[in-house]
Amino acid sequence: MTHLSRRAFVTAVVPAALLVSCAGHGSDGASAPRPGGTPARSSADTANAPAAPGRSAPARLRIPEIGVDTPVMRLGLAQDGSVQVPPITAHDQAGWYQHSPAPGQLGPSVILGHVTVGAYGAGVFRHLDRLRRGDGITVRLENGRSAEFTVTSVRTVAKADFPTKEVYGDVDRPELRLITCGGPRTGDGYLDNVIVFAALSTASH
């Protein structure tokens, strides 16, 4: 599919935030609402920001602090306008929302993963809530380059209060969002989302 611009990315769908349940087809682990709403602006100072790598889709995600080393698939939009989530499989992997900026490019790049995958057990993002400010994240790109990110914050929020503008909104530097489910479990789903916010620290060219 054709890549959307940063501003088109947050305005191309219905502005209302529609929450997607973690349940469905045995899924207990990843959900995200529609990426709509008015773009937000980061207050970050970009004067000394690292140079971005060339635009390329992510191929692999590594988070040493929590033992994540996973291929990354591409995700689009579901029929209801919500962001797709990775399929429920024994070999669980993360997925990049391909209408968000590529990792290392200006704006928030969004990657989703499951915390659990039904009968298959633990998901690739099962320990996402253990990350802390300062932890490192490496995204290997399809062009052979890589983008290094540093965690700036980790938040657990109720699904009803999902911070759509903070996750999908316009920012003035390359950033990364990692999203999964968390918090109390209800039935075959979870009440909350765990969201990791990270900023580009270095990039290979």
Automatic annotation (TrEMBL):
Pfam families: Sortase (PF04203)
Chain segments carrying region Disordered: 25-58
InterPro entries: Sortase, Sortase_dom-sf, Sortase_F, TAT_signal
UniProt keywords, alphabetically: Hydrolase, Signal
Bias (Low complexity): 47-58
Signal peptide: 1-26
Molecular function as annotated in GO: hydrolase activity
PROSITE patterns: PROKAR_LIPOPROTEIN (PS51257), TAT (PS51318)
NCBIfam families: class_F_sortase (NF033748)
Protein name: Class F sortase
Species in which this protein is naturally found: Streptomyces fodineus
